[in-house]
Amino acid sequence: MKKTTVLLLAGGLTAVSACKSSQTETTPVNTETTTEAAVTTEAALTYPETKKVDHVDNYHGKQVADPYRWLETHNDEVDQWIKAQNEVTQEYLGDIDFRDNIKNRLTEIWNYPKYGAPFKKAGKYYFYKNDGLQNQSVLYVQETLESEPKVFFDPNKLSSDGTVALTAFAFSKDGKYVAVGTSSGGSDWNTYQVMDAATGKMLDDKLEWVKFSGPSWYKDGFFYSRYDAPTEGNKLANKNEYHKVYYHKIGTPQSQDKLIYEDKAHALRNFYGQTTDDERFLILNGSEGASGANALYYKDLTDPKSTIKPIVDNFESEYNVIDNFGDKLLVQTNKNAPRYRLVLIDPKKPQEANWKTIVPQSDNVMQGVSTVGGRIIATYMKDATSQVIVYDQNGKQLNTVELPTLGTVSGFAGDQKEKETFFTFTSFTYPPTIYRYDVPSNKVTLFRKTEVNVDTDAYETKQVFYTSKDGTKVPMFIVHKKGLKLDGTNPTYLYAYGGFNISMTPGFSIANMLWLENGGVYAMPNLRGGGEYGEDWHKAGMTPNKQNVFDDFIAAAEYLISNKYTSSERLAVAGGSNGGLLVGAFMTQRPELAKVVLPAVGVMDMLRFHKFTIGWAWVPEYGSSDDAAQFENLYKFSPLHNIKEGVKYPATMVKTADHDDRVVPAHSFKFISELQDKGAPGNPYLIRVDVRAGHGAGKPTSLVIQEWADTYSFIYKNMGVNPYEGEAQNK
Known about the structure:
- By secondary structure, this protein is α+β, with helices and mostly antiparallel strands.
- The protein has a domain at 56-107 and 454-719: Rossmann fold.
- Helix content is 16%, strand content 33%.
- The radius of gyration is 25 Å and the shape is globular.
- 52% of the residues are buried.
């Protein structure tokens, strides 16, 4: 069974991710200049007038002004404000001489074929491919691995500008039909349709208002989750409540879909249905937030009289149903195992005393599990890099899968009956490479190598462990050209996330290669709040401990400076979503530590985040301003509320999108308004708002390239570096 975990977090750039198996899928120059050259003429910038309203909230006796509350509403006035801000930003970026050079080079190196690992369905092989600059990847089919691939589904035909993206693609058990999910403009709202796999024709079935779901087939239909249609006028910001599970039968209108499960007593719970590969069980996963903990329910689909019954009805730990062995469920859990273990549960006797441990917890974090060819394939994480161990169905270790070097592995899709599977391996300077794995023989063979137009051998990756404020050792990857001189002058890009149990592992980015080939340093620390060392590491950076994450990030910057990789005048700090909060806290707590900051789609208003779309799901991670003690903690680090009058903040380019309904753009709108009003002159404080784009998932290649060109141009401009002439730009 393919287990799909619904991401409700302020982070993941995809709405759903497959946990059982993955079937889806980026000459040295002289940069020495004087510090004077790095000073931009911010005084020449005229920011748009942003009105203030007299609005004050009372939080447990404390009066908190919210003068930009009006920016939370999507209307013509806000659209005009966005247009005015974008005009200032684009005029600033347009005056940078080398911006086109950067875009042209990015376009050049981006133009290479990108493949996803093949997966098999109904005897045929399927894989995703992007020829190079296509806005969306295309799904291909082939009868055998040697036969000519044919286009099976091309999402580029869904819109002229590439802003309609494929979000779900699930085959019926017999391979006859495909449930197709799409989203428009980057929204989390999905529309589901049904395609005849033989003809490619779309049937009349059309399902609206699907969100945080995935289609799970059963007989001649599928289970899915949706909300009621939102009220008109602000559908991208309305709070999402009362998630429901439905069953849709092919050939019937959505109005006839059968309601399978709802919880009328708890508006803020989400439910996702999944079926086992043999369609014996329906599994319902229930969540109260994005902490990862979930409840688990089941229904025996072979018994017409069966009802939905609980296996675990609390929200204290994580339970991920990997597969079923007959009438038992194979479950990955962190119950009494913060680094996860595999247990076999009889749903008729679900008490923990009856669980059978198949694979116990180890020293490393069990990150993913699949069942292929009668084997259990478990991916582990050791210091944020992958290891793969193969077990039999009783948990006896049989083999380890040989990997090329330190990096990240994904894949191993397939059914129990299959004897082969595929996986993708990548690292910072190792482009995604696909391998075929023969399960019975434990043989790994190269299937498809990615060819890129950069010299990846020119760079080296190291992992260091630095000390955070409270003495905790934190790992960090550092990538740069071989033989780099540590003299404190290297432009450095520091990127992190730090939350929601998300692990930051080595991965290839073609955009990063432009930075590296121009002598830059790329650094990625594994902050607390992530999942790199299991649930204990996660909890050390959530709710009352959130400041630990910011301290870890600050310490990473201090390490890079003290060890002469860079200086504060050559340091750029970036992060997105929960990472945008991270950058916002960094710049308001230590504004002198970096020259450039790039908070993207960030959670900036920590007092009101839970009032929009799925923001309530982040309360377990952050806390809530509705609670007096948690309010005090949130108020201390909320980026919006910690901008001080007259402080010179780093050169700032806030990035967001008008269709972001995960972290609504009002966070960024209010933050930049406060910064432009209070920040001292000397550096630019800009906002870049993508139009017809969302939180990041499904963004067309053309928009991604332009965003990176603007990002690097802004960084180099404010560091006083021209990457192509080696001369300062100080217009």
